[in-house]
Design goal:
2 copies of one chain form a homodimer. Chain A has helices spanning 48-65, 88-95, 109-117, 158-173, 181-190, 195-202, 207-212, 214-222, 226-247, 261-264, 270-273, 283-303, and strands spanning 11-17, 22-28, 33-39, 76-82, 103-107, 123-128, 132-138, 141-146, 254-257. The first copy, chain A, is an alpha/beta fold. Chain A starts with 10 loop residues before the first strand and ends with a helix.
Amino acid sequence: MNTMLKADTPLYLGIDGGGSKCRAVIVSSDQHILGEGLSGPANPLRGMKVATDSIISATQQALTCAGLAFNDMARLTVGAGLAGVNVPQYFQMFSDWRHPFKALHLTSDLHIACMGAHQGQDGAVIIVGTGSCGLAAVNGDIVEVGGHGFPYGDNGSGAWFGMQLLHHVLLSLDQLAAPTLMTDLLLQELGVSDSMGLVSHFMHATPTTYAKFAPLVFTAADAGDTTALRLAEQGAAFIGAIAARLLATKPPRLSFIGGLAHKLMPYLPASVQQQVTPALQTPELGAVWFARQSSQAQSYATSL
Amino acid sequence: MNTMLKADTPLYLGIDGGGSKCRAVIVSSDQHILGEGLSGPANPLRGMKVATDSIISATQQALTCAGLAFNDMARLTVGAGLAGVNVPQYFQMFSDWRHPFKALHLTSDLHIACMGAHQGQDGAVIIVGTGSCGLAAVNGDIVEVGGHGFPYGDNGSGAWFGMQLLHHVLLSLDQLAAPTLMTDLLLQELGVSDSMGLVSHFMHATPTTYAKFAPLVFTAADAGDTTALRLAEQGAAFIGAIAARLLATKPPRLSFIGGLAHKLMPYLPASVQQQVTPALQTPELGAVWFARQSSQAQSYATSL
């Protein structure tokens, strides 16, 4: 038991629930991190039971870490940023969840990433990881662009680069396009010698499978390979268009996050690069900001 | 019982086994079609049992149609063109099959399509349906290009066009690209009003789902929509590159088959269009040509 925390102290729980992991953080009303937890996928696409089990499991870890008891869940004001809750059907499923918390405020994982990056203040964020998307939150208005899923969306993302890599390598092996260094890099990485070997590897590939090979495009581009350079520029054009759309909302700050962000950065227009500021906090801490602001807005609305 | 056929008359069975259907045709040694059959998927990707059940079922129908008994299967010299047998693992699985026929000669569905199109003679064929690929058979050499699967390959195919359509519509709805007529066409076709509605429809889309919407690109291109025109040209460039590669082998004939072939034709270079000749026979009759030629080659080898 954490004897430092009186039973009536407000406690906030931030949840960052993605397709592969769920992170939880408990924060006191005076902004101290008390405990953290990590569990599996919390995306409702995998089913509500998997998602809610992951959330509860990460929360229990965070409670234990904070020296609190499991029944202290009823004290937690929760902000949860979950992949997929921008789909109305999944938002409804989570709203109907008989959760064990004091309150549960729901939003997208992208929104809490933005709130974390700017410590709860206005700003814009672009994620370039396995997928790609962007969000600006300015003066209470939210603009969300990109994303939508793979293979038709998530342009300029890791999955997109990996798929384009394979596409160009297969064209080249078929002698339908010029040779590219990416062919040698990909064949070597997979230990195969031809198209057939490549295709067997990618036959049931997920976005994560493709994204794993995205860095090879940048290795080849850095070595001056023309096809890879063009590809890096194409991907950067997609991300640059997202940036331009978000910057049009005049956000005070713009941050890039995600595993491919730093590789793509040099290919973005200088005008975008100059405006990029580092993300200040994690998405789960962004979820805490969201919980605070949502519960304050609610108390304010109730007191009117 | 078909009393016209003596018990020692050679009989050929042609099988065209694809991902959704299996067609069978029985042909006499003097080239008369005796019976036909149609069943479900014969692609080993769906499992060997499904594939062999489909082949047997289509064969039984063709035997019945020909007035023959099921145990006449043992008289059939079979040519089978099966999607997927270009993958060594699946070729081996089919080679190991304890089939009920006199002989079974295996090749790809693309190869028998080519043999059918040119009545067993040398030539080249390009398929532009749900997928896309091309093959040339000239002087005993076979060149195969394209295909490889979706979404990284099958460029310029129905699935590719459908995915590109969705890609451009989402970019346009996100105001990341210029408006396009394809947006109105796709939203109307699906009876949805925004990106969310589109994405829900395509979340678990197969190549067939995408291919269904490919014709909308050509509707928009015919109406002069710039984005759709550029897309039609891009798709045609992929198919044109396949054509150029096959024409370099100097095939006496070149045929296009598949549901999207006629829509794409006007966008191909005039030099390619001028060389296109109609397919003369179906792929399953191509499989019969393959059976004849393979068994003759075998007898010749044995008699040496």
